[in-house]
Design goal:
The complex is a heterodimer of chains A (about 325) and B (about 325). Chain A has about 325 residues and is an all-alpha fold. Helix content of chain A is about 75%, strand content about 0%. The two termini of chain A are about 35 Å apart. A two-stranded antiparallel ribbon of chain B has the order 1-2. Chain B folds into 2 domains: about 70 residues, no CATH class; about 230 residues, Orthogonal Bundle (MetI-like fold), CATH 1.10.3720.10. Helices cover about 70% and strands about 5% of the residues of chain B. Classes of the chains: A mainly alpha (about 325), B mainly alpha (about 325). Chains A and B meet through helix 2, helix 3, helix 6, helix 7 and helix 8 of A and helix 2, helix 3, helix 5, helix 6 and helix 7 of B. Chain B: Belongs to the binding-protein-dependent transport system permease family. Chain B: Keywords: Cell membrane, Membrane, Transmembrane, Transmembrane helix, Transport. Chain B: It is a multi-pass membrane protein. Chain B: It comes from Bifidobacterium aerophilum.
Chain lengths: ~325, ~325
């Protein structure tokens, strides 16, 4: 069995490393070509710097702005810090405004994203695995439905879902945020494609000969070979949940259940308040809300990049 | 490899059928991996789609003077006839289509140009800037829109005074400018990411081909135009067209812009906004559903045409 496992990791490795040889051969040729072109190197550097300034500039403005007080925000240079540092005061205002509603929204966003992503990962990876490795009657039918469902735009589902959820009492409950996102056909497809390539049938046969049942084979062997698509699906769905806006806006009425994005929009729409200038609160809130997802994406770059590539093979 | 071996571990023991072969049982267990997904898929996708088809054939009507309970009546295709004749809907669709046809290819072409430039002279440089270039892509859409709304804002943002220095009086929210403002934001969000994807696909071009072209005396520009661009174009064309179709559903960004500039961004600005407005502000769920079906059909036809063209090319 261990030999078979090794073989499968070999397959996985070769999936990831393809192109390395090409790259290596290219670099040999490249190094000579490069030396001749010092001038264009500086040109490229200039283009990259301009692009980086363009990409980071707005975020820099945000970081600078959250350290200012209301007056400084309107009067001082937007791209540099003012004399006094107000970040902590702004954070204090943000988390105490309206009895700390922002903290509530942040917490809602965190746990909803975590639970929904965990659910979608388990459900779609097992489904993709089942479709990839077993032959059963309804298999073709399910695959057909999955492919066809790619053509259904999200907008089409919103209004009938609203009617349906009202009927069965899901409207304005946590379930409406947790459940519908757990059954994305695209993820099943992604998991299936990956499982076909990375779970060897011989390995499963060997385990069967050793007396393992199908569920045990999945839990102890196959699931370990499916860590990459699982992590990809988890990450993409976490980010999708975190950023989602239209769905919670339609299905959550009680503002204590709202997510951060929805809350921020409501503050922007309100604009001013007798006590606080909401502009500073919106900016501080926006800044805090992007930190977790940016950190997560930086930490797990490998996974979402591979996910994007697999998705584009569709 | 006998019945006895797999039977004890199974919850569905083959009692009633007399004899079920272990292969059948294996297939059944394999199928059971897809059951959780299937249950959710039926409830959250198939039933809503079926409901959409049904709901769109009915209409809510108030009796005579608008007093008393509203009754729901079967009206057949009437909602669709109305939708086809609805000038507001088609204007919104045209607006979004025009926007997508300009912004999506522009983003792709700009990213391609930058990727080619970097590829032509240095292999390592782009990776040093990678994290910064990816930051806009990682920024949640609502946060990005919030930042740009304030950057564009005449009272807080640094852009209005910046353009004033050159004697330009720019109002980013005016009806002539607002699409440009939203488009610029989309380019900001996608440029760095697309550039890195394209840079990655350039790495996959076999080094020998480029070497051969160099030996034949082709200039770098010639290599880029005759080898690299055609190589990328096939994959880029498909993603470009699919992105254009997806953009038809544009909602979050213009909706947020509407909170600060309701005069220029009307409630029916994009098809998705119009559907939202019809369903949840006006309360005409039936008509909103009919509109979303029309939108889905248009998107479906467009995707089908693109896949046809793509397959013919191959």
């Amino acid at each position: 069995m261990s030999a078979a496992t090794q073989q499968s990791t070999g397959i996985k490795k070769s999936l990831f490393d393809r192109g390395d040889k090409r790259r290596a051969s290219q670099e040999v040729g490249e190094s000579t070509a490069n030396q001749a072109k010092g001038a264009s190197k500086w040109g490229v550097l200039a283009v990259l710097i301009i692009l980086t300034v363009y990409a980071v500039g707005p975020l820099w403005w945000l970081i600078v702005s959250v350290t200012k007080n209301k007056q400084q925000l309107y009067t001082t240079n937007g791209l540099w810090f003012a004399e006094s540092f107000n970040l902590f005061k702004n954070l204090h205002d943000l988390f105490t405004y309206q009895d700390g509603i922002y903290g509530q929204w942040l917490w809602n966003t965190i746990w909803i994203s975590l639970v929904c992503s965990a659910g979608v990962t388990i459900i779609t990876v097992t489904a993709g695995y089942g479709l990839a490795k077993y032959k059963f009657h309804t298999r073709g039918l399910i695959m057909g439905m999955i492919i066809i469902s790619f053509l259904i735009p999200g907008t089409l589902l919103t209004v009938p879902s609203f009617i349906l959820f009202n009927k069965v009492g899901l409207y304005d409950t946590w379930w409406v945020m947790l459940l519908p996102g757990m059954f994305t056909p695209m993820n099943v497809y992604l998991a299936k494609v990956y499982a076909e390539g990375s779970v060897p049938t011989e390995l499963m046969e060997a385990a069967r000969v050793d007396g393992a049942g199908e569920y045990r084979i999945f839990l102890q062997i196959s699931s370990r070979l499916l860590v990459t698509p699982a992590a990809t699906i988890f990450l993409l769905s976490f980010v999708g949940n975190w950023n989602s806006f239209m769905w919670p806006m339609i299905f959550l009425k009680d503002y204590h259940k709202w997510t951060v994005m929805l809350g921020l929009q409501s503050w922007i729409a309100r604009g001013t308040d007798s006590q606080y200038d909401l502009t500073i609160l919106v900016l501080t809130g926006a800044f805090i809300s992007m930190i977790p997802v940016v950190l997560l994406m930086i930490a797990l770059q490998r996974y979402w990049k591979s996910g994007v590539t697999v998705g584009s093979l569709k | 490899m006998s019945n006895a071996k797999s039977a004890p571990a199974t919850p569905q023991s083959p009692k009633r059928g007399g004899h079920i072969s272990w292969r059948t049982l294996e297939a059944l267990k394999g199928a059971s991996f897809t059951w959780p997904f299937l249950a959710g898929f039926i409830f959250f996708v198939i039933i809503p789609v079926a409901m959409a088809l049904q709901v769109s054939l009915y209409s809510k009507q108030k009796s005579g003077l608008g007093l008393g309970e509203a009754t729901t009546k079967f009206v057949g295709m009437q909602n669709f006839v109305e939708a086809v004749k609805d000038v507001t809907f088609w204007t919104g669709l045209g607006r979004v289509a025009l926007y997508a046809i300009i912004v999506v290819p522009l983003t792709q072409l700009l990213s391609m140009a930058i990727a080619l430039l970097i590829d032509a002279s240095s292999k390592r440089m782009a990776s040093r800037f990678r994290i910064f270039l990816l930051l806009p892509y990682m920024t949640p859409g609502i946060v990005a829109t919030t930042i740009w709304i304030y950057l564009y804002s005449p009272s807080v943002g640094p852009l209005t005074p910046f353009f004033k220095m050159f004697g330009l009086n720019v109002n980013f929210f005016s009806s002539g400018m607002v699409w440009g403002s939203i488009g610029q934001m989309a380019i900001w969000g996608g440029l760095g990411f697309n550039m890195l994807i394209m840079y990655g696909s350039l790495q996959a071009i076999p080094g020998e081909i480029i070497e051969a072209a160099r030996l034949d005396g082709a200039s770098e520009l010639r290599i880029a135009v005759s080898i690299k661009v055609p190589y990328m174009l096939t994959s880029v064309a498909l993603t470009t067209m699919l992105n254009i179709i997806a953009t038809v559903q544009l909602f979050d960004q213009p909706f947020l812009f509407r909170s600060v500039s309701p005069q220029t961004i009307t409630k029916d600005f994009t098809p998705a906004m119009m559907i939202y407005n019809q369903a949840f502000q006006v309360g005409n769920l039936n008509y909103a559903t009919a509109l979303s079906i029309v939108l889905a059909v248009i998107m479906g036809i467009a995707s089908a045409i693109i896949y046809k063209l793509q397959n013919r090319e191959n």
